[in-house]
Design a protein that fits this description.
The protein is α+β, with helices and mostly antiparallel strands and 164 residues long. The chain has helices at residues 2-19, 63-69, and strands at residues 24-31, 38-45, 49-60, 79-91, 101-107, 113-122, 127-136, 144-150, 156-158. The protein has 2 helices and 9 strands. The protein is elongated, with a radius of gyration of 17 Å.
């Protein structure tokens, strides 16, 4: 069974690597039950905002759980996010629209479902908002998590000048 699990995880990881604008480093893995389900903790550095790192958690189903539930190809949409300043902040070319920029994307099903982190700049409150959610081809999920990094009073370098 571990060989099958490794193949499934490799396929999901490959899809995630091909699909995402930023890469993630696995910094934690916590077993949650005796059948091998885990919570994975990734560190994701924002590729356009130096000095900000987000920690994203998600559920990784075991082969036993996949067989038991009959759904081989996807993990639950549950995730959590926490973003913080981890160095001097330098903001590159970011999307200032209300829809923001995708910072990170990883496959949580073989093809159809993705875990996405989107960055939105709240100009009025001088804050970066990071939204973790799942994106599905047909049925979107209402499961989401949010984290903010306040820029107020911080020495921030803007590549294109601070938006007015």
């Amino acid at each position: 069974m571990s060989r099958t699990r490794n193949i499934v995880l490799a396929a999901v990881s490959l899809i995630g690597l091909l699909a995402g604008p930023a890469s993630a480093d696995v910094v934690g893995k916590v077993g949650v039950d005796w059948i091998g389900n885990d919570i994975i903790v990734d560190a994701v550095a924002d590729p356009a905002v130096k000095g900000v790192t987000c920690h994203v958690t998600y559920f990784d189903r075991s082969v036993i759980d996949r067989v038991k539930n009959g759904n081989w190809f996807e993990d639950p949409s549950n995730s959590a996010i926490s973003c913080h300043q981890t160095g001097p902040i330098e903001i590159g070319d970011i999307d200032l629209s209300k829809s923001g920029d995708e910072v990170f994307k990883s496959g949580i099903s073989l093809i159809w479902k993705k875990l996405v982190v989107t960055r939105i700049y709240d100009k009025q409150n001088d804050t970066l908002i990071y939204l973790a959610h799942s994106r599905e081809l047909t049925d979107g999920s209402a499961k989401m998590a949010i984290s903010t990094v306040s820029l107020y009073g911080q020495p921030v370098t803007w590549k294109n000048g601070k938006p007015q």
